[in-house]
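Minutes, project huddle
Topic: does the predicted pose make sense with erythose-4-phosphate bound?
PN asked that the exact inputs be recorded in the minutes so nobody has to dig through chat later. Recorded below.
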Amino acid sequence: MKFFVDTAEIDAIAELNDLGMVDGVTTNPSLILKSGRDILEVTKEICELVDGPVSAEVVATEADDMIAEGRKLAKIAPNIAVKVPLTWAGLKTCKTLSDEGQMVNVTLCFSTNQAILAAKAGATFISPFIGRLDDINLDGMDLIADIRQVYDNYGFETEILAASIRTVNHVTDSARIGADVITAPPGVIKKLADHPLTDKGLEAFLSDWAKTGQKIL
Ligand code: E4P
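Predicted holo structure (tokens), as shared on screen:
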């Protein structure tokens, strides 16, 4: 399973990247706003830091403008994945750019039918949003499972990028279902290491070690 980090904060990406936990990065207009950075500058810095795909999102709503924005974003670095929303204009942009050999991440996916369209348009990644479905009392994880089944039924090669991940359980469940990638905020990825029994066990070991009076170094 690949881990993408869902942020445009360079320091947070670098910290996880040093630990080998970053297979890619996803950004969106809200995350760019949060970073306070210029999209072209910060995306270039992220692409220099991380080897894997870095999603940068178009903001136009008409296909011609989306395609132009996508081509401009793609020029930032070879590891850019152009992110487009799941609209017909976004799908047209996906088809055009993927035919040119460009990685494309189709985002804001909330249904299995939308995911089928993205795969047929040649998407490299489909981003179903788990948390936002949970927010309206639907089950985001059911969507991941349905897309997994349908993609496997037909051998679609589009990778399922489980997005809008809010909890560590979303990560576990995505892994169980077989999502190819999760993208999560740095805080969620860091929480994956936490377990109270690990803390308790370590405390006991260190307490007993102190009583031995020994040193390793
Ligand atoms: C995915 O690519 C999106 O950037 C992200 O996961 C959205 O998450 P949110 O619903 O927590 O904003």
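Observations noted during the meeting:
- The chain is about 55% helix and 15% strand.
- The chain has one domain: 2-192.
No decisions taken; revisit at the next huddle.
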